[in-house]
Amino acid sequence: MVTEDERMEIDCRGMACPQPVVVTKDALEQLKEGDLTVIVDNPAAHDNVERFVRSRGCSVRTVKRDQEVTLHIRKEAMNCGEESVRAEAAPKEVVVYINSHLLGVGDEALGSILMGAFLKTLLEMETKPNRLILINSGVRLASEGSEVLETLRKLSEKEVDILSCGTCLDFYGLKEKLRVGRVSNMYDIAQSLLGADRLIRP
Asked: Residue 103 belongs to what domain range?
C-alpha cells in the first residue's frame, strides 16, 4: 500500500502506445499524494503522458536527455483526486469518429467526394462537434496532400479538437506530414469514445 506523499518511479522506455499512459494512470491511482517520476524514450509517449497527467490536475516538469524524457509529476490530494476523475469521466461532448478517408462503401472517387461534402457540412452547421477522431486511413484527411485540409483547418479554428491516431500515422508513414490537429493515442481515443455524450460515425 502506497502511503501519502510517497515517491514513485516507473520506467516506460520501450513501451508501445498506449502502455505509457496506462501504466502512468495505474501509478497515479495508487499514489494518494506525492511525486511520480515517469521515464519515456520517444516524443509521442512524452506528449501523451504529459497531456494525461495535466488532465488529471497534476503538475509536471520535464527533463530531456537525448531521446529520453523524464517527467516529474506532482500529485496533490486536493487537485488530483476523485473529483477530478469524476469530472473527466462525465459525458459532455459530441464526437465524430472517422475510420477511413472515404465515406461509404463502393466507388472510391465517390467516397472521396462524399467525405469532403460531409466535412464541409459539419463546418457549416451551427452546432459543431467537440472532437473529431481520425483512425486507420482516416488520418490521411489531416495529412499533407489531403483535399480537405482547408476544411479541417477551419474546423480546428472553430475549436473542434482533431485527433489523429499516432499508430495509424506511423503505419502510413505520415507522422511528419500531419498538417492539422494533434497526434493522439489509443488510450485518449478510447476515453473520448466512452465519454462522449453523442458518437457519430459517418
From this structure: 91-200
